[in-house]
Write a structure and sequence with these properties.
This protein is 67% helix and 0% strand. By secondary structure, it is mostly helical. The protein has one domain (7-63).
C-alpha cells in the first residue's frame, strides 16, 4: 500500500504536525515571557537569577543533553 494513501500514515503526519506547532508556539511564548521579564526586572537581575539557578542545579535542562561517556 502506498504510504501517502495509508490512513494510519496520514494520521501520524497530522499528529506530528500538531506537536511541531505546539512546540513552536511554546518557544515563541517563552521568548516573549523572557523579553517581558527582562524589561520588567532588568536584564542583569534576570541573568543573575538564571545563573544562580543553574549553578544550584535548579535548571539542569540548560546543561544540554546528557550522554554517557561524552563530555560536554
Amino acid at each position: 500500500m502506498d504510504p501517502s494513501v495509508d490512513p494510519e500514515h496520514r494520521a501520524a503526519e497530522a499528529r506530528s504536525g500538531l506537536v511541531t506547532g505546539a512546540l513552536m508556539l511554546a518557544t515563541v511564548a517563552g521568548e516573549l515571557v523572557a523579553l517581558w521579564l527582562a524589561a520588567r526586572c532588568g536584564h542583569r537581575v534576570l541573568f543573575d537569577r538564571v545563573t544562580v539557578a543553574k549553578c544550584t542545579g535548579a535548571l539542569p535542562a540548560l546543561d544540554g543533553p546528557v550522554v554517557q561517556g561524552v563530555p560536554h
